[in-house]
Inverse folding.
């Protein structure tokens, strides 16, 4: 992990109005976490640097700061995206997945298992990692049916570009409640949430 | 006040940040809200700040509202169901001032409803957030004073003590005597205090369409119930959960199914029962419903008599 001086001339701008824009982004993220499977779009979010989607960037600008240890995908090491996050969020970085409050995963092929991140403590399950998974698209993939708190009966999603065993990982994650990570799936400027309470069933599977 | 007041322009010389709290505090509270929604009923510790009102006046609810509110929101604040009580008026004025939001007394048009001690009679919808002010977030505190112990009890789902307490109620009074702050189980996992709402309101928590957030400022805890979540009031097979009922109807609007407050009228002991939800009652009266004491001086509130615009 680089601790080099940031080259400020190469850092792209973040929110033009941080107070209003982070509030608007948070309200959408909150609705999505409260209603798993609901897709929201951050079309007005600033363009994040190469390797980072608009939605991941918007969530980072809204929730990361000096209090949150962030695990960044090794694919983003020493990148403009890393410099952008360090400058705008002031977040400390870690290479230890189990220490992270937030994680941004961009390379789904080499992505660590969800179990590698902080699963929370029996008394403090809120200390688990929130994992932001950046994938190809939130639509057009195999259909998965979600149920659980926040969903009236069931809801279908069809994200594209997840690893083969992803839904097995989600099942394991859900089964160990109150422990577990909370997942935010992002693609381009879109986001949907899979908190640890959500049960997923592959359609026809 | 039933039509939203247009938001005023953001004054450049504001001496505090938008919505009063600084951005780092808001981020901290926002992160806590997300974890609270992911673990329904679990109490997330948070760094509660000093607010311009004393603890016990709704600092937890105010901090939650400040962390989520935006200029497009329409804000409603109730105290014991009423929009026109001192605390509710002050908090509503506070957010109209610091967050440039429109305020309302109309339950249906509000996007954020902050409440102390009631859930509105009108069913809530998607897009609404109900923010509860909570004095004591720990349902087990009356039974076990040590936070280290109650935290372990939640961690290992060790809720026997709570059932013993309810059983002692049954053996002493022949029924479960708790009437407000009646404990609930969320998703059959976490025991949760519903805040001091009357148990009449407990069933409204289950499968509610709105997002429900709970804030305890002095006790520094945030918890949440997402929409469409199972919330069960504790009971026994032979002593099932029951809500309060009244033989009286609302003296002003004649409602038979709303939560009624008993109001003593004079030294001779005359009394009347009126809806605790002031907007619900006003809306019913505007629709032509008449109670046995309609036209009473308590019904003279000019603001409520204005025809809907």
């Amino acid at each position: 992990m680089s601790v080099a001086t940031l080259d400020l001339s190469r850092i792209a701008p973040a929110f033009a109005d941080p107070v209003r824009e982070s509030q608007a982004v948070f309200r959408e993220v909150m609705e999505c976490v409260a209603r798993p499977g609901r897709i929201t779009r951050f079309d007005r979010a600033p363009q994040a640097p190469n390797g980072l989607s608009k939605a991941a960037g918007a969530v980072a600008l809204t929730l990361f700061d000096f209090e949150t240890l962030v695990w960044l995908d090794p694919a983003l090491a020493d990148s403009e995206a890393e410099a952008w996050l360090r400058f705008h969020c002031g977040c400390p970085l870690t290479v230890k997945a189990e220490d992270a409050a937030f994680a941004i995963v961009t390379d789904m092929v080499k992505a660590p298992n969800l179990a590698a991140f902080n699963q929370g403590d029996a008394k403090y399950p809120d200390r688990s990692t929130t994992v932001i998974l950046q994938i190809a698209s939130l639509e057009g993939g195999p259909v998965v049916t979600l149920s659980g708190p926040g969903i009236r009966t069931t809801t279908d999603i069809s994200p594209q570009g997840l690893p083969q065993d992803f839904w097995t990982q989600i099942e394991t994650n859900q089964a160990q409640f109150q422990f577990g990570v909370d997942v935010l799936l992002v693609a381009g400027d879109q986001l949907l949430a899979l908190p640890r309470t959500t049960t997923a069933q592959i359609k026809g599977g | 006040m039933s039509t939203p007041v247009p938001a005023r322009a953001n004054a450049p010389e504001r001496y505090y940040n938008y919505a009063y709290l600084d951005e780092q505090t808001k981020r901290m509270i926002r992160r806590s809200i997300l974890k609270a929604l992911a673990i329904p009923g679990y109490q997330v510790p948070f760094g509660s700040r000093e607010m311009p009102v004393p603890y016990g006046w709704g600092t937890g609810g105010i901090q939650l509202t400040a962390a989520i509110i935006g200029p497009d929101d329409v804000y409603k604040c109730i105290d014991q169901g009423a929009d026109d009580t001192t605390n509710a008026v002050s908090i509503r004025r506070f957010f109209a001032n610091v967050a440039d939001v429109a305020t309302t007394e109309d339950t249906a048009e509000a996007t954020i409803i902050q409440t102390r001690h009631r859930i509105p009679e009108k069913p809530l919808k998607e897009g609404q957030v109900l923010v509860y002010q909570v004095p004591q977030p720990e349902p087990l505190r009356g039974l076990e004073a040590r936070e280290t112990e109650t935290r372990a009890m939640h961690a290992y789902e060790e809720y026997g003590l709570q059932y013993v307490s309810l059983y002692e109620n049954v053996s002493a009074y022949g029924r479960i005597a708790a009437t407000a702050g009646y404990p609930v189980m969320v998703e059959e996992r976490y025991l949760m205090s519903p805040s001091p709402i009357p148990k009449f309101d407990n069933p409204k928590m289950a499968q509610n369409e709105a997002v429900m957030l709970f804030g305890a400022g002095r006790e520094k805890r945030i918890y949440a119930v997402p929409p469409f979540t199972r919330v069960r009031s504790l009971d026994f097979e032979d002593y099932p959960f029951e809500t309060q009922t009244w033989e009286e109807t609302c003296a002003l609007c004649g409602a038979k199914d709303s939560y009624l407050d008993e109001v003593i009228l004079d030294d001779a002991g005359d009394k009347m029962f009126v809806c605790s939800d002031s907007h619900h009652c006003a809306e019913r009266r505007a629709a032509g419903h008449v109670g046995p004491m309609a036209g009473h001086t308590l019904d003279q509130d000019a603001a409520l008599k204005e025809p809907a615009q």
